[in-house]
Design a protein that fits this description.
This protein has 446 residues and is an alpha+beta fold. Helix content is 41%, strand content 22%. The strands form three sheets. It has a seven-stranded mixed β-sheet with strand order 2-3-4-5-6-1-9. A two-stranded antiparallel sheet has the order 7-8. A hairpin with a 7-residue loop joins strand 5 and strand 6.
Length: 446
């Protein structure tokens, strides 16, 4: 249990954790190299070379198939709405039956497709991949097990796709099956007759549940391949995580208790929302070895592969991130000033050997600068782990000095704390902790 949940347990009615939106990219892996595309058409379709017209005919046939099936089943195909898609399609789900397609939104979106380069007169073609803006079909349906979901299909070879799931809808179906009462408000359960069972069901989600649902609909919406081609040539989509949302949902007993804490947290979190702080909360230190520009969108930091089979490792990583984040939130609400730790810093520290270390002089500029650097929330989020080099630039900024002037200032003001040898020894910057021993020991011991 994290510090926030533990401290506010008496005010919380119940809590649970689960995935919210799960965006899965679907790729047919054998067709990610042009030469394998040529081999497929030669072996299974007896077509060589693969021309621009052939690829265009395949796309036209797929467009025609989707629109003909929609007319047969009286499913509307609509243009891209001005507002949010999820809100726009709400009304189509009101009387949706299990495994029923309710609406299709047609929109131009980017896709990686196969293109043929050549001339019809010479009939010599070579294939290459290109990024193009083409028409996609966003198919909204009510899956029997997952409930409301969306499958986006690209009618251009090699038929890339995306499946958008939400575990809240999946959990609602599981609770109905077990006869557990609940009240759902979009991505939250506001009431639940058995919160422990709700959490157990949330934790029971497996990669097999994702694959089963994804393959079921991707096979249905890509009719180009025969059963033999799917079986022998591997013409089926493999699913990879594109985006995941994992939430810790705490339902408070009283709205006033939540509002009181929320107002303070909203203001305090402005200082820890920067990329350097966020990456620390996410459990990975940003060093000089980090390649690329530091942004609020952080990619490939956790060493977890994108295939959906790695769902358990992703679940553990995201749960740890949530715990660290909530620990920081509680530390914001209950600062060292509130707990009296600031006053204790001025008192002497007695070691087990009986030796007394003097307390800090809270009006000393250098020690105030050091404390300013020590209590940064980025260090709290990292579990209290940091190096002297991490403190150095922030101490300089608090003092308003440059590294060159800090050398003289440091040696002149620390001779009393560092002993008789300090006057003949210059601080060498962030790697030199010898002159800071008494200040850091007193601060860290409290």
């Amino acid at each position: 249990m994290n510090a926030f949940r533990e401290h506010h347990e008496d005010s919380i009615r119940f809590g649970y954790r689960c995935f919210d939106r799960l965006l899965l990219n679907g790729l047919i892996q054998p067709f990610q190299q042009p030469e394998r595309v040529v081999r497929f058409f030669t072996r299974y379709r007896d077509q060589y070379p693969v021309t621009r017209q052939l690829l265009r005919d395949i796309a036209n046939q797929d467009h025609a198939w989707i629109e003909a099936r929609a007319r047969e089943r009286r499913v509307p195909i609509l243009a891209e709405p001005d507002g949010r898609r999820d809100e726009f399609v709400d009304r189509f789900f009101r009387r949706a039956k299990p495994d029923e397609v309710v609406v299709i939104l047609k929109a131009r979106e980017p896709a990686r497709i196969v293109t043929a380069i050549g001339t019809p007169t010479d009939n010599r073609w070579h294939l290459q991949f290109a990024q193009r803006w083409v028409a996609h079909y966003n198919i909204y349906l009510n899956d029997q097990r997952w409930g409301r979901l969306c499958v986006r299909v690209c009618p251009y070879f090699p038929f890339s796709a995306r499946v958008c799931l939400n575990q809240h809808h999946w959990l609602a179906n599981r609770l109905r099956e077990e006869g557990i009462t609940f009240r759902q408000c979009r991505n939250a359960f506001l009431q639940c007759g058995d919160p422990d069972r709700l959490q157990a069901l949330a934790d029971s989600l497996t990669a097999h549940d994702l694959v089963t649902c994804g393959q079921k609909w991707l096979r249905a919406f890509t009719p180009f391949f025969t059963a033999e081609e799917r079986r022998e040539a591997g013409c089926q989509h493999r699913l990879f995580f594109a985006q995941t949302e994992y939430g810790d949902n705490l339902i408070f007993q009283r709205r006033a208790a939540l509002d009181q804490r929320g107002a303070r947290l909203l203001d305090a979190n402005r200082t820890i929302g920067q990329p350097d702080s966020i990456t620390t909360i996410f459990g990975r230190r940003v060093t000089t070895h980090h390649a690329g520009k530091l942004q609020t969108s952080i990619h490939d930091f956790y060493g977890i592969r994108k295939a959906v089979e790695h769902l358990p490792a992703l679940h553990r990583q995201l749960a740890g991130i949530v715990d660290r984040y909530l620990d920081v939130q509680q530390d914001i609400l209950e600062t060292f000033v509130d707990r009296g730790q600031l006053r204790r810093l001025a008192k002497p520290t007695v070691l087990p050997s009986g030796k007394r270390l003097p307390g800090l002089k809270l009006d000393h500029p250098r020690q105030l600068a050091l404390m300013h650097a020590l209590v940064r929330f980025a260090h709290v989020a990292a579990g209290g782990t940091f190096k002297t080099a991490d403190l150095y630039p922030h101490a300089l900024a608090a003092l308003g000095v440059t590294p060159e002037t800090y050398h003289w200032h440091h040696s002149a003001t620390t001779s009393r704390n560092c002993g008789p040898r300090a006057s003949s020894r210059r601080c060498r910057g962030p790697g030199d902790i010898g002159c800071c021993r008494s200040a850091t020991a007193s601060a860290s011991s409290s």
